[in-house]
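Let's sit down with a protein and look at its sequence and fold side by side. Once you have written the record down, we can walk along the chain together.
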Amino acid sequence: MKVANHGGAPVVIDGETVVALDGPGDRGPARFINAITQLVDRCDAPPGGDSQPLDLAKLGPPVPVPGKILGAPVNYRSHREEMKVEHTVSGLGFFLKSPSSVTGMSGVVPVPFPERRTDQEAELGVVIGRSASNVVVDDALDCVFGYTCLIDVTVRGNEERSTRKSFP
């Protein structure tokens, strides 16, 4: 398996090749979607760039520079019981995470306060692929471009949730 290593979003092609695609000047999901569109248009000819075996590559995140990251706190029953919270997402609202908290598969998140409890939670990430303001429930999934796995790192404490979840 080969990897084109020039800093863009990693994309697997036919299980054989991974290429990193860039969309000129685009940011966030738009960059990724433009890159995928280019790839589909040139299906049999992946973009140029240096390549290397996959096992030597450091893959970045699927959306290297997200415009906004929203999180849903206490989003499953056992976590609600652990946190001793009555509210669900609908009562707690969403929180923001800093785009600088994103890393790729081989990325490292240094623990900022080793003396404090730091949790890592496996989460499902949803990549929104188009403008999605005031979307009605029946149309919500039309805004989803794809899904990704992620680890949500949380330093426990009394600071605002966004502060405790946004370390680089």
